[in-house]
């Protein structure tokens, strides 16, 4: 293995060196507990609130509508379970292509008496807002539809869905872990009541995320203790990670326009080349309403896992599904919901690009992948 090239930015991103530099003082020089009343605590409290404002401003929210959490998984659990516990009504609508942390939170609630209904998607993985309107009932308390799908990159029509929910007095939550820092988000104009964002997807540290909770939303906390984060998430705040999250957010927003342009060009080049040069290769997800860094393709007669392992031997890292569930043997629930057969889903791979992806990296990928597919097809038991 002569080189290592990373094409799995949808799973996680490396920390930008500028973010590391911003974090460094908060490990041992500025270490106070933000809840302490002395000068060490007061200084840290100011830093905490400064970074809360950065996240709030990024999505056009108020500062006291942002709570910091440890992960998107935690934020999504608070959103679903917290709303369910605090409101009358038992009906919850979620899309059938949500991340596992939303799906499993909903299934957990279903096991405790809630009526969870899954919204279908079309062949591109997109939810039809009309389906949301049709399925909302008098006892519906929450609709959760992600902004960008983590596997196939499809951008969902959340503004339209949010408008329908607002009209029907139903809370609307969106998991924006894959879109934050890549797409413009305005929680006011998009009619969003709860929104999840994550640091580790935008070149910040792991262990930091946030949940936007619109003022007036009835929600119960899951953690009880010292009352940190507006009594919504008791735990001493992870200040170094939050500082890194804030710095990463500033950098993403500043560079978003140019970075989207650059990544879209690389993304489209990969898609065009593979569809043209590799027989029986197909694109998964929407061809146009797609986030800038996502390529999800399927190859007939071979399995994605075999492609992953062979590419890894060439120093190329990709994935077959979301990183949280890729070891599972069953086909991706996202691809299945889109109508793909098991063998089609198993033949799919995700190539996700990022800040460190260069033209030469794409050159190398495109020089290796077609040959890998050809070699695997020669020994495949699934071939024609």
Would you give an account of this structure?
The protein has 384 residues and is an alpha/beta fold. It has two domains: 5-13 and 256-376, Aspartate Aminotransferase, domain 1 (Alpha-Beta Complex), CATH 3.90.1150; 17-251, 3-Layer(aba) Sandwich (Aspartate Aminotransferase, domain 2). The protein is 40% helix and 14% strand. The chain has twelve helices and twelve strands. A seven-stranded mixed β-sheet has the order 2-8-7-6-5-3-4, with helices on both faces. Strands 9-10-12 form a three-stranded antiparallel β-sheet. Strand 3, helix 5 (100-110) and strand 4 form a beta-alpha-beta unit. Helix 3 packs parallel to helix 8 (239-277) and helix 4 (72-86) packs parallel to helix 5 (100-110). The longest helix is centred in the C-terminal third of the chain and has 39 residues, at 239-277. It is globular and about 65 Å long.
Labels describing this entry:
Aspartate Aminotransferase, domain 2, 12 strands, single chain, 384 residues, 2 domains, Aspartate Aminotransferase, domain 1, alpha/beta
Number of strands: 12
> What is the subunit arrangement here?
single chain
CATH T-level fold name of the largest domain: Aspartate Aminotransferase, domain 2
| Structure classification | alpha/beta
Q: Profile the largest sheet.
A: 7 strands, mixed
What percent of the residues sit in helical stretches (DSSP H or I)?
A: 40-55%
Give the overall form.
globular
| Overall average pLDDT | 96
- Which percent range describes the beta-strand content? 5-15%
- The CATH architecture of the largest domain would be 3-Layer(aba) Sandwich
Count helical runs.
12
- SSE ordering: EHHHEHEHEHEHEEEHEEHEHHEH
Computed over alpha carbons, the radius of gyration is 21 Å
State the distance separating the first and last CA atoms: 32 Å
Poorly predicted runs of 5 or more residues: none
């Amino acid at each position: 293995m002569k080189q290592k090239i990373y094409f799995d930015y949808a799973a996680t991103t490396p920390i930008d060196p500028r973010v590391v530099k911003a974090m460094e003082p908060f490990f041992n020089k500025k270490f106070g507990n933000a809840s302490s009343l002395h000068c060490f605590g007061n200084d840290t409290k100011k830093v905490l609130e400064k970074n809360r404002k950065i996240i709030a401003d990024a999505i056009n929210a108020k500062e006291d509508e942002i709570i910091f959490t440890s992960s998107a998984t935690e934020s999504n659990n608070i959103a679903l379970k917290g709303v369910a516990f605090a409101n009358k009504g038992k009906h919850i609508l979620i899309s059938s292509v949500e991340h596992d942390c939303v799906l499993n939170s909903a299934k957990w609630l279903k096991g405790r008496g809630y009526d969870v209904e899954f919204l279908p998607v079309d062949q591109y993985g997109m939810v039809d807002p009309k389906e949301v309107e049709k399925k909302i009932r008098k006892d519906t308390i929450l609709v959760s539809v992600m902004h960008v799908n983590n596997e196939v990159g499809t951008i969902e029509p959340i503004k339209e869905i949010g408008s329908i929910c607002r009209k029907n007095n139903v809370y609307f939550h969106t998991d924006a872990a894959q879109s934050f820092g890549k797409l413009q988000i305005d929680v006011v104009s998009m009619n969003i009541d709860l929104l999840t964002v994550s640091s580790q997807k935008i070149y910040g540290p792991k262990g930091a995320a946030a949940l936007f909770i619109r003022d007036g939303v009835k929600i119960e906390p899951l953690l009880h203790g010292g009352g940190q984060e507006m009594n919504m998430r008791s735990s001493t705040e992870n200040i170094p990670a939050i500082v890194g999250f804030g710095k990463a957010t500033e950098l993403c927003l500043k560079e978003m326009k140019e970075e989207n342009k650059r990544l879209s060009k690389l993304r489209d080049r990969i898609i065009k080349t593979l569809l043209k040069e590799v027989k029986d290769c197909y694109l998964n997800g929407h061809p146009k309403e797609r986030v800038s860094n996502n390529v999800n393709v399927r190859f007939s007669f071979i399995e994605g896992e075999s492609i992953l392992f062979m590419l890894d031997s060439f120093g190329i890292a990709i994935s077959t599904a979301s990183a949280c569930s890729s070891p599972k043997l069953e086909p991706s629930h996202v691809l299945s919901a889109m109508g793909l057969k098991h063998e089609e889903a198993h033949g799919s791979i995700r190539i996700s690009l990022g800040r460190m992806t260069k033209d030469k990296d794409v050159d190398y990928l495109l020089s290796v992948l077609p040959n890998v597919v050809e070699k695997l097809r020669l020994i495949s038991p699934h071939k024609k």
